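Backbone geometry:

***
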Amino acid sequence: MNPERPDQSPITSPRSERVRRIAALSGRSARRKQGHLRVEGPQAVRSLLAERPELALELFLTARAAEDHPELARLAAAAGVPTREVDETLIRAMTREPGGGEGQDRPESGAAGAVSPQGAIAVARLPEESAGAALAAIAALPAEGPLTAVVLHEVRDPGNVGTLLRTADAAGADLVLLTRTSADPYSPKAVRAAVGSTFHLPVIAGAVAPALLDALAGRGITATATSGYASTDLFEAELPERIAWILGNEARGLDEATLAAAPLAVRIPLAGHAESLNVHTAATVCLFETLRRRTR
């Protein structure tokens, strides 16, 4: 049973304070203040309840969603998470994007009605975000054997963060770390884009790049950067079996200091006239090249 007991009273108005608090979780400052995140859609909610039930606090389902996805209520009951049947208007109000705000608290593009959680929303505890948590996650990794970590450094778009989490999950990554200047992986947009992968592997935000690289080296993990100016071709490089792919900003890539600090840098060969690949495509190539070599 989760030690945080949510308000047990029924929700009847889309203007109620509880609905407003859940809607406010679109903003990073509200997530930090409340210590909660919002998980939308049957697949993401299923992953939360199946893989990280200790984080789940409350589940909201429309009658249609409860009928179409009966496993959600079963998983919630097994985890001791209360399930509440609510009207579709309440679901829409819970995902309403507030106006105003700056930076990562800015509403996502499109009208509030464009966000479709398909009748399923969960509220969950927000995992710790700190440099210490990132270092602890590295220390907890196995001391020997093949291993893949992913570090997102100054990746600013939450949609990109979510798709990168999904790709890292699909490629069998063991850990994803995000530096403080990256988008929040627990924003609704990032969680939606990850389609459940947020809860399939450890995802820790708040890392600091220099200490992170030192900690990786201390565990025998080679930080590997991608750069169009690197002399080593990805497909010809000797990739270490314990590797951490360092991925940089969407527009600028990795800063010079991080590139210089990485023990290994590779370039992805391009055959056409494109000058570069976007960060998600580059990550996909690198991660699946790592996977290909391990499984051949």
Notes: The chain is about 35% helix and 15% strand. Residues 100-114 have pLDDT under 50 and may be disordered.
